[in-house]
């Protein structure tokens, strides 16, 4: 199972990223657990300095921006193939 974490304090862009990730996971029919990290000290420990961020299987894949749906699909497809 793929583990996806969306990091952000709850701002509009963080919510947008979380919604996009959930959409892509559902559309791809992936076996993935999507969770949220909102605690600032926990976010910093991941290495993300600018939110929103996305961590897939323990690796920071996005930091400081909301990727497009196509970019999220590409990231998750690449990660699933590994």
UniProtKB/TrEMBL annotation:
<feature type="active site" description="Nucleophile">
    <location>
        <position position="14"/>
    </location>
</feature>
<feature type="disulfide bond" description="Redox-active">
    <location>
        <begin position="11"/>
        <end position="14"/>
    </location>
</feature>
<dbReference type="Pfam" id="PF13192">
    <property type="entry name" value="Thioredoxin_3"/>
</dbReference>
<feature type="domain" description="Thioredoxin-like fold">
    <location>
        <begin position="2"/>
        <end position="76"/>
    </location>
</feature>
<dbReference type="InterPro" id="IPR012336">
    <property type="entry name" value="Thioredoxin-like_fold"/>
</dbReference>
<keyword id="KW-0676">Redox-active center</keyword>
<dbReference type="InterPro" id="IPR036249">
    <property type="entry name" value="Thioredoxin-like_sf"/>
</dbReference>
<keyword id="KW-1015">Disulfide bond</keyword>
<dbReference type="InterPro" id="IPR005243">
    <property type="entry name" value="THIRX-like_proc"/>
</dbReference>
<protein>
    <submittedName>
        <fullName>Redox-active disulfide protein 2</fullName>
    </submittedName>
</protein>
<feature type="active site" description="Nucleophile">
    <location>
        <position position="11"/>
    </location>
</feature>
